[in-house]
Write a structure and sequence with these properties.
The chain starts with 15 loop residues before the first helix and ends in a 6-residue tail after the last helix. It has a four-stranded antiparallel β-sheet with strand order 1-2-3-4. 53% of the residues lie in helices and 10% in strands. It is α+β, with helices and mostly antiparallel strands.
């Protein structure tokens, strides 16, 4: 009996929940990894995977593995379950609670959906390229596991690159500051001490997920 399957062709075709399940597979042997990869990303029972031709399994998994190496970029808006979500319009306007939750979960892969709930919320008003989003509700995070993978990874890479740029700006300022700016220099150094562990956690997350930073 033939089985019709839907094969993901882009990161947008994979949900965060699927990817989190796949990451948990760890170091499976090649054939086991291939079978589980198709089961998870093509959403079919393992018994159906076992009935497939070996050549088809190789072709499908090779394409999926190559796709997973795609470098993601920031996506400002996307639709999920019929609802349009938008990236937080102005990071400078984040509340203290939003900042704390984002800082806590952005480098914590097992609970990354909680960070996504800070960054992406339903769009309430939209005028051309500008929009507003709902107020933050820390309890509304489970739905974020349905997010497209490209949105999730793109936002993580965005914050990693943002941190790198911020560190460069601070370093350049400290190196060129005059003696009258000693207090400002000390404040910047203190801020860099706070950014460093944040950057390391993001880098470790991206490295564990084999996401290219080049």
């Amino acid at each position: 009996m033939k089985t019709t399957i839907t094969i993901p062709t882009t990161l947008n075709d994979i949900t965060l929940a699927q990817y989190k399940e796949w990451v948990k597979l760890g170091e499976l042997k090649d054939i086991q990894l291939q079978m589980e990869t198709i089961r998870i990303f093509c959403n079919i029972p393992l018994i159906s995977v076992r009935r497939m031709r070996a050549s088809d399994i190789n072709d499908i998994t090779n394409n999926i593995f190559k796709m997973l190496e795609t470098k993601p970029t920031l996506i400002n808006r996307f639709k999920m379950n019929g609802v349009e979500y938008g990236f937080i319009p102005n990071l400078d306007d984040m509340t203290f609670g939003e900042y704390v939750d984002l800082d806590t979960y952005i480098g914590n892969w097992p609970e990354i959906e909680k960070a996504m709930a800070v960054l992406y919320r339903p769009v309430t008003i939209k005028v051309k390229n500008k929009y507003l989003i709902e107020d933050y509700n820390a309890d509304n995070y489970e739905v974020m596991e349905d997010m497209p993978l490209d949105v999730v990874l793109g936002s993580i890479v965005f914050f990693y690159n943002l941190g790198i740029d911020l560190c460069k700006v601070m370093t350049n300022y400290i190196q060129t500051a005059d003696k009258d700016s000693l207090m400002e220099e000390q404040i910047l150094i203190a801020n860099m001490d706070g950014i460093t562990p944040f950057m390391l956690s993001l880098k470790e997350t991206l490295h564990s997920l084999k996401i290219s930073l080049n």
